[in-house]
């Protein structure tokens, strides 16, 4: 009686099941099919039982299907599961998930296959769409030049695009699993971006400095955000773009702008000198000529002599200024000849260089002394440039030294070359001006102790000519105590 009940229960389950069910003989012929399966395949049961499973299968699936069914027959597995395509009555194929077991007779001999079939066509379409989307993402991920990355909540790199190799020299396998902080050139950049992420949750176009596998510095622009799940921080993700070339161009442009600003400053200074410092002595000399013409008519010889001496001073000042202007202008155009020769007569060079400043020094009762020249001092340099450097430094020293003061010159041997020192006990330079004295964009001019005017060109010339020799020039000064200008010319 129970057997009959079981048969009836199976029959009810078979007929009313929401998924397709079928009984298939061992040769693959359909024996029974419920309504769900018939609806799924588009056949009436009477039509379906006239067909074999192979009639609805793709040829490419047959070998795999036979292999699974044989494992059921041999007892290798109690049931078999597979996904395959069946041909619908209308001609298109649908995807079906199949679970198969064997039905045995009372003697234990296999009689039929009992199959449960579920239409998974929509699921397969979604999977295909996901695979296609993933393939597109993977193609972009692997080929885009920007670097995409993901980290966990501790900053360990979980994923990074292969483009990292092009920018850093690291293979992605060398980076995954490593702390992101290992790849910052400066740790403060890491601290800055972490602080911004903690504050805002994201960063846009955030510039950091990273290091390559060979410790080269690279600039990168980072877009990143924190990732949360259920309110908990689980990591971060973002992209990086190599902006090293852009940064280099920005620096070049900045340098050019600074050079242009300095050039404009020099131009303005030049016009100021021409319009004031050079015109005044010429105008003054013309006025003196008018006075002398008047004195000649009145035979005032003493007045004529006094006017001539004043004119001499004015013209001497104008001549020196004009010489500096011309030399400075040629230097700006790189038109100054550079003739390096061996120089052994250092003391003679010093004496001839300080001669133009002697007249001013005598009037102010300032003593110019060559204090010390190291024995055997010699160097390879351009004589004219060397004399121009010394002349300008000595003239400046006299100009800013009070009457009765001293200007001392010395030359010392150093390992790197000859060190020239021009030292005075004059008024000195304010501390805030010293650091900028050789900055071309900074102009520092002031009157001498007797009202002498300065242009600032002399120090420009000195710095340019010293650098031409590969040397250095600097100053030490204390307000009210004097200044010492140093320059060193390297030995060759």
From TrEMBL:
This is histidine kinase. It is an enzyme of class 2 (transferase). SMART domains: HATPase_c, HisKA, PAC, PAS. One of its GO terms (biological process) is regulation of DNA-templated transcription. One of its GO terms (molecular function) is phosphorelay sensor kinase activity. Transmembrane segments: none annotated. Its EC number is 2.7.13.3. NCBIfam families: sensory_box. Residues 80-132 form the PAC domain. The keyword Kinase applies. Keywords: Coiled coil, Kinase, Phosphoprotein, Transferase. Residues 246-273 form a coiled coil. It comes from Pedobacter yulinensis. Residues 273-492 form the Histidine kinase domain. Residues 6-76, 133-198 form the PAS domain. It catalyses: ATP + protein L-histidine = ADP + protein N-phospho-L-histidine.
